User: Which sequence fits this backbone?
């Protein structure tokens, strides 16, 4: 089974910065209040993925140094989306 295709990848000019913890908590509370289990699962998965990605980035930095991440645009974007720049 192939993953779904993402049509809009933020090219519409919308803010594509990572969601902050407070925003995620508010979205999660709203989804739970509306009993929207799909959105609850999506938010929980996103938070889990963000934490895992932060650990992966930290591991790469510890093993190869911060320059390895700094010179790789994909890793820089992953670090940004994982929230490690927000702390």
Assistant:
């Amino acid at each position: 089974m192939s993953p779904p295709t993402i049509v809009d990848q933020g090219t519409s000019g919308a803010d594509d910065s990572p969601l902050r913890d407070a925003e995620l908590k508010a979205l999660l509370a709203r989804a739970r209040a509306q009993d929207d289990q799909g959105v609850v699962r999506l938010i929980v998965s996103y938070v889990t993925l963000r934490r895992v990605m932060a650990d992966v980035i930290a591991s790469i930095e510890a093993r190869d140094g911060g320059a390895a991440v700094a010179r790789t645009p994909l890793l820089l974007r992953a670090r940004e989306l994982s929230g490690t720049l927000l702390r």
